[in-house]
Amino acid sequence: MSKNKFIAYENVFDESTLRGLFNLSGQGYFDNIEGPISTGKESNVFTVQYKNEKRVVKIYRTSANFKKMYEYMKPDPRFSGMKGTKLSIIYTWAKKEYRNLLRAREKNVHVPMPYTVHKNILVMEYFDAPLLLYKAPKNPQDFYERLISELQKLFCAGLVHADISEYNILNDKEKPVLIDFSHALDLKYPHVQRLLQRDVHNLVVYFKKLGLKLDEEKEFMRIWTVKN
Ligand SMILES: Nc1ncnc2c1ncn2[C@@H]1O[C@H](COP(=O)(O)OP(=O)(O)OP(=O)(O)O)[C@@H](O)[C@H]1O
Ligand SMILES: [Mg+2]
Predict the structure, then answer these.
(1) 119 and 176 share one domain
(2) Paired residues of 43 in beta bridges
(3) Where residue 140 falls among pLDDT bands split at 50, 70, 90?
(4) Cα 227 to averaged position of ligand 1 atoms, centre (Å)
(5) Selected catalytic residue, list 142, 180, 186, 199
(6) Most buried in the list 50, 63, 89, 200, measured by CB within 10 Å?
(7) How many Cα atoms occupy the beta-carbon half-sphere of 101 within 13 Å?
(8) Residue of the nearest CA to atom 21 in ligand 1?
């Protein structure tokens, strides 16, 4: 990444994030920052140029609500016993999203390939696709069935997404891509059933509006009782 491009972001990120971005580009994970695609509650998402393609960097703001993150992470057996400073909690949160994405990929769930995580910065595959929120499926029944199949595969990978809605699903040429895995939880998490119920509820509400007839409990059971 050229020094000039780097300076352009001086006021956007803190010192340590800028250094992190510079290190990652030095290691060849991307060449240049292109521009922002989203400013979320806890993160900023940018596209970056990597050779002839685009990639995504998701940067958790160091001013994020780390207490909420900690509450969420504490009961997850993979991160239990974790204590530390505000920064280390935010770094662990980013690492959690990275690991969740990898685990989902291993079971062929349609999610962005994570390339690396460094401190509060996650580099992953870019999909040139709108959110489901902005592009409803042409064939809702077909899209819905594909989504259930993705959630079943995710469940077999030992994970529940826990933040599913039309805001965290891309419509990639009429196929769903699940994104935003920082909240995703291991099945050993105590409230996992309730969180899966909420995910299914959000989907059922969305697809009922598109005319599908769905029974929430039945749809929940299709995932909850799926066999590996
Ligand atoms: N891999 C990707 N490819 C294309 N667009 C993406 C990708 N990842 C994220 N986006 C875009 O960036 C937006 C924000 O990403 P994401 O949902 O992961 O973060 P967020 O909602 O800001 O998370 P948080 O609530 O934790 O701050 C998405 O709504 C989507 O438009
Ligand atoms: Mg999101």
Answers:
(1) no
(2) 60
(3) very high
(4) 30
(5) 180
(6) 200
(7) 23
(8) 40
Closest Cα to atom 23 of ligand 1: 40
Cα(208) to centroid(ligand 2), Å? 22
Within a domain: residue 36? Answer: yes
Tell me what pLDDT residue 163 has.
96
The minimum-distance atom of ligand 1 relative to the CA of 181 is 18
What's this model's pTM, rounded to 2 decimal places? 0.92
Residue 208, in any domain of the structure: yes
154 lines ligand 1 (CB under 6 A): no
Q: How far is the CA of 194 from the centre of ligand 1 (A)?
A: 24
Among 82, 101, 125, the domain boundary falls at 125
Within-domain flag for 134: no
Question: What is the pLDDT at residue 1?
Answer: 57
Q: What is the pLDDT of residues 52-108, one digit of tens each?
A: 999 999 999 887 677 777 777 777 777 766 667 788 889 999 999 999 999 999 999
Q: Structural domain of residue 179, as residue ranges?
A: 140-224
CATH number reported for the structural domain that contains residue 149 in this entry:
1.10.510.10
**Pair (209, 121) in one structural domain:** no
Does 89 reside within a domain?
yes
The answer to whether 134 and 182 are in contact (CB under 8 A) is: no
**Ligand 1 lined by 169 (C-beta under 6 Å):** no
